[in-house]
Design brief:
Length: 108
């Protein structure tokens, strides 16, 4: 590849646009998933490859049917953009916690 004079080429600009780099990244990330994310992926594979209905998967895994539907949709979206980290459970802590009011007596 010829580089024009005065143009700087670095790997940070080349790598994101190389074909197949997202695939390599997603395959390496798939091995490091948490147990809940692996369960979501397993539900999707049962639905897609084994042709099981979400109600059947729910009975096998002892989960609610709507949960299985949600997991399958999340996995579809994650596989379309090849980002397995979207399968990881999100934080359940509240965005803001009420502050404790400290009442200090005033002395005269």
């Amino acid at each position: 590849m010829a580089v024009a004079s005065g143009v700087q080429m670095s790997s940070t600009h080349i790598l994101p646009f190389m074909p197949g780099m997202k695939t390599v990244y997603s395959v390496s990330y798939r091995n490091n998933l948490s147990d809940k994310a692996k369960l979501k992926l397993h539900c999707y594979e049962l639905h897609k490859n084994e042709n099981m209905k979400p109600s059947q998967i729910a009975k096998v895994l002892n989960k609610h049917r709507s949960t299985i539907y949600r997991w399958i949709n999340q996995t579809k979206k994650a596989l379309q953009i090849r980002r397995y980290q979207y399968l990881e459970p999100k934080s359940r802590s509240p965005n803001s916690t009420p502050r404790e009011k400290v009442i200090t007596p005033e002395y005269e």
